[in-house]
Amino acid sequence: MYLAINIIGLIVFLAIGWLFSKDRKAINWRAILTMTALNLVMAWFLTSFPIGLTIVKGAAAGFDALVQVSYQGIAFAIPSMVNVKSMDFFVSVLLPILMIVPLFDILTYIGVLPWIIKWIGRGLSFITRQPKFESFFAVEMMFLGNTEALAVSSLQLKQMSAKRDLTLAMMSMSCVTASIIGAYTQMMPGQYILTAIPVNVINALVVTSMLNPVQVSQEEDFIAKIGGLASVAEGTVEADGKKEPFFSFLGDSILSAGRLVLIIAANVIAFVALAALVDKLLGLIHPWVSLEHLLGIIMFPFAWLMGLNPSDAFQFAQYMGEKLVTNEFVVMGKVTGKIATTAFSEHYRAVLTVFVTSFANFSTVGMIIGCFKSIVDREKNDLVSKNVPYLLLSGILVSLLSAATVGLFAW
Q1: pLDDT band at 229, cuts 50/70/90?
Q2: How far apart are CA 100 and CA 276, in angstroms?
Q3: Where in the cell is it found (predicted)?
Q4: What secondary structure, in 3-state letters, does 222-240 show?
């Protein structure tokens, strides 16, 4: 019965995309069905086939190995915080970012990461028949994160139409960044984290193709040359056209990683404290009333459509709402000690992990709008700003579709 509900849920989430579409007649249903089928096959392969499981578990083990190596650097500086029975969240999850971010930046500097992004993007465009740059950007944001992907795409954003810029803004709600996947895999099941990432990429194309369908002519379907402004934004090329010296580049990368660690820590502390304050205030009305309970009521229908029993669905709905109001790290921190236990069924474990694996939350909206404001003209930025509800809807729908897709094959 729950499998049937899960299937119905997947159809309902697609129907929501159609219902809120800006131009229902312009939706390319052939492309939508092709991408949905591709996602189902990919989720099935990565969760049900021995070779798929081996690939995903091998990738998860690789990220875990990177984190373990990073602990050596942390232990050199603060051994009293590493050589303990149980490390704090800040040390075990956030400080490894100080090594992993520079590692991915080095791969960018030597050209490996841009090469991977380019060819995966071309393959994705060929398979899905989506515009070249939208496919390219979908892969780019999987590795670089939303603001970073937008920054290195500044040249393209300035040349594209305002409607296509809105599409990219909506897609940016559903990204992650490869440099913090190691942090995720320390808190949640790695195999589902790494399955969620490519599934999110395809679903970002599916959802934006429904919510904001744009007809792209052959003349408009191009990718601006990566160089000049884009390379300067990426940080590998200076304004005079010369490549930045490696150790100068590495130093900037390490400083950026440090800022990222502080930003994440500040956000987690602030959001958890503010949520506790809201709970205190709501508790004055009635002891049962809390932010989690209210969010659980609002999100319950969507959680139930994942194929969960009512009790698990209500708890999942609370996690869903909390993730959207705060961020993924807050929810991951709450469940990390128990998600691998019998308190969670395999299906519940899968859908929860996939749902929280993205940057889709309220604070991300502000980051995206701020990034567009610094790159494009006022007309394009105003269009993005006026469509904040669509940005939120896009991020939520992608997370729901991805969780429902992977959940079909995890029981």
Answers
A1: very low
A2: 32
A3: Cell membrane
A4: CCCCCCCHHHHHHCCECCC
Q: How does pLDDT run across 236-282, given as a tens digit for each residue?
A: 555 455 677 888 888 888 888 888 788 777 876 877 788 788 888 88
More confident residue, 246 or 129: 246
Q: What is the pLDDT of residue 242?
A: 65
Query: Cα separation of 22 and 277, whole Å?
Result: 38
Q: What does pTM read for this prediction?
A: 0.79
Taking residues 369-397, report their average pLDDT.
86
DSSP-assigned beta bridge partners for residue 177: 144
Q: What are phi and psi of 243, to 5 degrees?
A: -70, 135
Q: Do the beta carbons of residue 13 and residue 354 sit within 8 Å?
A: no
CB atoms within 10 A of CB 242: 8
Mean pLDDT, the chain, as a whole number?
83
HEC sequence for the chain: CHHHHHHHHHHHHHHHHHHCCCCHHHCCHHHHHHHHHHHHHHHHHHHHCHHHHHHHHHHHHHHHHHHHHHHHHHHHHCHHHHCCCCCCHHHHHHCCHHHHHHHHHHHHHCCHHHHHHHHHHHHHHHHHCCCHHHHHHHHHHHHHCHHHHHHHCHHHHHHCCHHHHHHHHHHHHHCCEHHHHHHHHCCCCHHHHHHHHHHHHHHHHHHHHHHCCCCCCCCCCCCCCCCCHHHHHHCCECCCCCECCHHHHHHHHHHHHHHHHHHHHHHHHHHHHHHHHHHHHHHCCCCCCCHHHHHHHHHHHHHHCCCCCHHHHHHHHHHHHHHHHCCHHHHHHHHCCCCCCCCCCHHHHHHHHHHHCCCCCHHHHHHHHHHHHHHCCHHHHHHHHHCHHHHHHHHHHHHHHHHHHHHCCCC
Percentage of the chain exceeding pLDDT 90: 24
pLDDT greater than 70 at residue 228 = no
